[in-house]
Write a structure and sequence with these properties.
This protein has 69 residues and is of the alpha+beta class. Helix content is 17%, strand content 55%. It is built from 1 helix and 3 strands. The chain has a 3-stranded antiparallel sheet with strand order 1-3-2. A hairpin with a 2-residue loop joins strand 2 and strand 3.
Length: 69
């Protein structure tokens, strides 16, 4: 593995389906404007409840991307 310098940012994705879907949505959307995303780390998981049911999930992640040379 070559030496890299990473910059990171925090994202929050949401989904009516699952935490996995919320993470994927956040990364896919960020990938439209941020190049070289290499890793993510889950920071927080929370959800919204309506009428006694989980209405949607929110997952905050930190993503790292390499700086261009």
């Amino acid at each position: 593995m070559s030496e890299h310098v990473y910059k990171h940012l925090e994202l929050t994705g949401s989904s009516k389906t699952s935490t996995d879907d919320a993470i994927r949505r956040a990364i896919e959307r960020a990938s439209q404007t941020v190049r070289n995303i290499k890793w993510f780390c889950v920071q927080d998981v929370r959800g919204h409840v309506e009428d006694g049911q989980v209405a949607h999930w929110q997952v905050t992640i930190k993503v790292g991307f390499t700086l261009e040379e």
